[in-house]
Amino acid sequence: MGETRRHSPLARDAMAYVLAGGRGSRLMELTAKRAKPAVYFGGKTRIIDFALANAINSGIRRLGVATQYKAHSLIRHLQRGWNFLRPERNESFDVLPASQRVSEDQWYAGTADAVYQNLDIIESYGPEFMIILAGDHIYKMDYELMLQQHVDSGADVTVGCLEVPRKEATGFGVMHVDDKDQIISFIEKPKDPPGMPDKPDMALASMGIYVFKTSFLCEQLRRDAAEKGSERDFGKNLIPYIVKHGKAVAHRFTRSCVRSENESQSYWRDVGTVDAYWEANIDLTDVVPALDLYDRNWPIWTYSELVPPAKFVHDEDGRRGKAVSSLVSGGCIISGAGVKNSLLFTGVRVNSYSRLEQAVVLPHVNIARSARLKRVVIDRGVEIPEGLVVGDDPVLDAKRFRRTENGICLITQPMLDKLV
Questions:
Q1: Which residues of 369-401 are buried (b: 16+ CB within 10 A; e: fewer)?
Q2: Which of 204, 109, 110 is CA-nearest to residue 158?
Q3: Which of 82, 75, 93 has the alpha carbon at shortest distance from 16?
């Protein structure tokens, strides 16, 4: 197949299609008003920005995003931050809500159905390749390298895979592969995951990233749509069918992950629980974090509000505006307060005598005087009352707020309103 390689990048002839309908219910109240892909991450960005930025940085200029649950804030973010693609340059950006385009049923039945219902739009652009992406993971990846493997191997589908310890793979869809990484079987959440031929203690877990030739994908989606009893899902229906009747090949994330000189290992996170979300954000405050957001060669594009620089004021004993080992976004005012090992999103105000430690504070939160908050996630726009203490008394914290197994407290405005 080597002679089929072209001089121009394959990404030019590809469309990236992001599945961004996830409820994200394990994030509890963080997804009460927004879909998981719209959840804030890293100080400025939203989770979905990583998949979209990977596509743009890989050279893909046709993007589609399928939305479903609580999609308003996600759609608003996409319109504000991703409206720079121009049709006259053969670029496109489509937001595709579930909209009864194919049947009377309003919702997408499954991940495959979310593509099937928009086949006419996809076919109107005529991309040669389709990359199906999950919109709710944090990682940096060059999809061009995955496209090249897909073409060179002659696969019907190429599945992006993570290498995970075998005992930890029980929550994933796992690929059983031969010594050429061709997938022999696809097992959803196995009790005893198969090891890799070259690394028996590791298993190949699906990342929810698939590459197809568009014509083949359309064929398979139409076949699946006509099949009674199908759940219309890539992981449950389409991929197992292709494994059995065609050629499915695994693509190892280590082959295409993007790492700056400061990143020692490939980075991928599913921030699907409050604990995982808090940890991934707080990890960014490390001196050399595992995820490098400062890499100018692979920027994470997003909607950036026009705000003034962060400001630190007052310099008296006990009332000094300072932040140590923290990320402080634009528009923040640290007014006579101390911030340590914390991540503050845009427009946060921390007032005098307050102390934050290991806090993830979403945009436009106002923290009144003399509050002491430790190991917390604070939702957008929350007004923290004067003197509130969180992180000292686990029993009291659990009564008032959402407290996780690891002792992280999620604080929302409705929770605070009940305290009054």
A1: bbbbbbbbbbbbebebeeebebbeeeeebeebb
A2: 204
A3: 93
- The percent of residues above 70 in pLDDT, for the chain, comes to 96
pLDDT of residue 2 exceeding 90: no
Residue 324: φ, ψ to 5°: -125, 135
Does residue 311 or residue 25 have the better pLDDT?
311
- Residue 104's pLDDT is 54
Nearest to 378 by CA among 335, 353, 347: 347
Nearest Cα neighbor of 97 from 124, 72, 119, 122 is 72
The neighbouring-strand residues paired with 328 are 344
pLDDT of residue 298 exceeding 60: yes
Work out the average pLDDT over 104-127. Answer: 86
Q: Which residues neighbour 188 within 8 Å (Cβ) at sequence distance 6 or greater?
A: 173, 235, 236
Instruction: Give the DSSP letter of residue 309.
Output: P
Q: Residue 321's closest CA among 281, 280, 369?
A: 369
C-alpha to C-alpha distance for 396 and 91, rounded to whole angstroms: 53
Model pTM score: 0.94
